[in-house]
Specification:
The protein has 146 residues and is mostly helical. Helix content is 71%, strand content 8%.
């Protein structure tokens, strides 16, 4: 049997799952060793539950739409257009992110002025482009999806 979409899903979840292990380690060190006031349980639920699954489904969509002949890097660069609004909405619902006149405030401690916040999204799009073009495409090749 050919499980092309399952292999695409599995190749897609590798990158965010490995990255989130590093992020979770950093959060645990910050919270429990350095006593930073960061509520891990509220911060990590969204990324650990949703992002790897979205990467896997997004990779399955790319495999399905491979006939469209756009690059996997371009396809990956579109993913922040889904993740950022979802993350911002969830952050507002969980009252982790606040909007103030000077910028965005996370956890009542971290402040991000609007000027810098405007630079984060283009950097994120470029980063996703590179990760998908080189890492996810490599993993797709390894599992024989492409």
């Amino acid at each position: 049997m050919n499980h092309r979409y399952l292999r695409a899903y599995m190749a897609g979840i590798v990158v965010p799952t490995a990255f989130l292990l590093v992020v979770l380690t950093a959060f645990c060190l910050a919270r429990f060793v350095f006593h930073a006031p960061i509520p891990i349980e509220r911060v990590m639920v969204f990324p650990m539950a949703l992002i790897p699954n979205l990467f896997g489904v997004w990779n399955m969509l790319w495999v399905r739409a491979a006939r469209a002949r756009w690059s996997i890097g371009f396809h990956g660069a579109l993913l922040p257009f889904v993740l950022v609004p979802l993350g911002f909405t969830l952050g507002r619902l969980l009252e982790v992110i606040a909007i103030e006149p000077g910028g965005l405030v996370a956890f009542d401690t971290a402040r991000l002025p609007y000027g810098r916040a405007a630079l984060v999204f283009p950097v994120l799009v470029v980063l996703y482009y590179l990760v998908w073009k080189y890492v996810v495409a490599f993993l797709n090749d390894v599992v024989g999806v492409e």
